[in-house]
Amino acid sequence: MRDAHIIKPLVAAGSRVVFPPKKNRKQVREHDKHLYKECHLVEHFFCELKQLRAIATRYDKTAQNFLAAIYLAAAFIWLAYYSEPSLNSQKIAPKKRC
To answer: What proportions of the chain, in percent to the nearest 5, are helix, strand and coil?
Structure first.
C-alpha cells in the first residue's frame, strides 16, 4: 500500500483508521465505519462556520471576543440543525454548502 508509511506509525501510536481505503486496493484494511460517518458532522460544522463572515475574516480583535463569537455561531448552527423537523425525523445531516 502506498499509504502504509503514514498509517503504520499512527496505528502504533494508538490512533484508529477512520477513512476507508480506495476500492481498487489489493489489500483491504479495516476502518471504523461508524466514525467515518460521524466525520461528516464535523466537516459540515466547519463548513457552516466558514459561511459566517465575521468568523471567516476574524472580525473581532481580541482572542476572547473571537472565541465568544465561535461559541455563539456554534450554538446557532446547532439550533438550526435540530430545529428543522424534516432532518430530525429522517436522521440525516443537512446539505453541504461549501
So the answer is: 60, 0, 40
CB neighbour class for 91 (10 Å; exposed up to 12, middle 13-18, buried from 19)? exposed
Q: Is the dihedral of CA 36, 87, 51, 72 positive or negative?
A: negative
DSSP state for residue 93 in the 8-state scheme? P
The model's pLDDT over 57-70, given as tens digits with 9 standing for 90+, comes to 888 889 898 899 89
In Å, how far from its chain's centre is CA 30? 21
Task: Output the pTM of the full model.
Answer: 0.54
**Which cell goes with 45?**
460544522
CA distances for 25 relative to 20, 29, 32, 68, angstroms: 10, 9, 17, 45
Q: Which tens digits make up the pLDDT trace of 4-19?
A: 788 888 888 988 777 7
Domain segments of the chain as ranges: 1-31, 43-98
Give SS3 for 46.
helix
